[in-house]
Amino acid sequence: MHSPIERKQPSFSLFLFLCITITFKIAIAFNIAIAFNVSTLTFGESYSPLFSKFNIQLSPDDKTVRLLLNRFSGSGIISSDYYNYGFFSASIKMPSRYTAGIVVAFYTSNVDTFEYNHDELDIEFLGNVQGKAWRFQTNVYGNGSVSRGREERYRMWFDPSKDSHRYSILWTPKNIIFYVDEIPIREVIRNEAMRGDYPSKPMSVYATIWDASSWATNGGKKKVDYRYQPFIAEFKDLVLQGCVVDPVDQIPSSNCSDSNAALMAADFATVSAEARKSMRLFRQRYMYYSYCYDTLRYPVPPPECLIVPSEREMFKSSGGLKGKIRFGGSNRRRRRAKRRSDAAIAASGR
């Protein structure tokens, strides 16, 4: 990683990692209890199998679904309905042990209905090499603009295979927010100059696990190792909150006006000052690629990009991090900066 653990201080590094993990668990548990006022659904109320039903396992109470990947196939589920904007969430526990090359995805899309001009909102978990932090990315596509993807990539500050954590996508006519637990990590505010690049057509919600050995981990250098199969991603606390529509209806449904107004009035539809502080700290600490700073790909930043000078200084023209600029100075100073950053994110997330 960008700040490798020094061999001379393994005990201190382990202690620091445990302290940070415990701090975040306390904050996350508090947040889940009081923050988002949403109702959860059973699998039968919300989803159906998408592919490889033989690799999908349901709990006896129908509240938890396990998606398996083995050498025969991955697996996936799809929401039973299409939504015209909404809030979509699930508590997910990632596969454990060696998971290089594996992608677990929670996302919205309408590619099945709009093959050539589909919309999509992605949260994709990119596996890990044992002992290293997991990485994940978010992406936004609108109107088939696959050549204009809006990727951001991040490192996890916890091990997502140890416990379930809540991941959420808010999608309204005005903004898109990605959440990890109740901490916002990214907001896209609709800009009229985006035109059709802002997702606006009804979408389904998907959850999948699959073999992405060709690209997911270290650019494809690390492959899926099926000696550790089956790889299991667990989904529970399923939330699908939005206006259900017919995806092929060419006339926007007036029935969604009240639903969308209620959606935009919800507590999770606005990033408060404290939550924005959490988001800023998260991005400074854990974001390692942003399309907004990729001037090789976009000489002129896309219209929705809000260029933050402190962020811009961190990135090369390729949109990737500039070496160790994130924690300049001595190792001791870098460790102090990390402790302060993690503690501040946890505190402001409450």
From TrEMBL:
<dbReference type="Pfam" id="PF06955">
    <property type="entry name" value="XET_C"/>
</dbReference>
<keyword id="KW-0378">Hydrolase</keyword>
<dbReference type="Pfam" id="PF00722">
    <property type="entry name" value="Glyco_hydro_16"/>
</dbReference>
<feature type="transmembrane region" description="Helical">
    <location>
        <begin position="12"/>
        <end position="36"/>
    </location>
</feature>
<dbReference type="InterPro" id="IPR010713">
    <property type="entry name" value="XET_C"/>
</dbReference>
<dbReference type="InterPro" id="IPR013320">
    <property type="entry name" value="ConA-like_dom_sf"/>
</dbReference>
<comment type="similarity">
    <text>Belongs to the glycosyl hydrolase 16 family.</text>
</comment>
<keyword id="KW-0808">Transferase</keyword>
<keyword id="KW-0052">Apoplast</keyword>
<feature type="region of interest" description="Disordered">
    <location>
        <begin position="326"/>
        <end position="350"/>
    </location>
</feature>
<comment type="function">
    <text>Catalyzes xyloglucan endohydrolysis (XEH) and/or endotransglycosylation (XET). Cleaves and religates xyloglucan polymers, an essential constituent of the primary cell wall, and thereby participates in cell wall construction of growing tissues.</text>
</comment>
<keyword id="KW-0134">Cell wall</keyword>
<keyword id="KW-0472">Membrane</keyword>
<dbReference type="InterPro" id="IPR016455">
    <property type="entry name" value="XTH"/>
</dbReference>
<keyword id="KW-0812">Transmembrane</keyword>
<keyword id="KW-0326">Glycosidase</keyword>
<keyword id="KW-1133">Transmembrane helix</keyword>
<keyword id="KW-1015">Disulfide bond</keyword>
<dbReference type="InterPro" id="IPR000757">
    <property type="entry name" value="Beta-glucanase-like"/>
</dbReference>
<keyword id="KW-0964">Secreted</keyword>
<protein>
    <recommendedName>
        <fullName>Xyloglucan endotransglucosylase/hydrolase</fullName>
        <ecNumber>2.4.1.207</ecNumber>
    </recommendedName>
</protein>
<feature type="domain" description="GH16">
    <location>
        <begin position="1"/>
        <end position="235"/>
    </location>
</feature>
<keyword id="KW-0961">Cell wall biogenesis/degradation</keyword>
<dbReference type="InterPro" id="IPR044791">
    <property type="entry name" value="Beta-glucanase/XTH"/>
</dbReference>
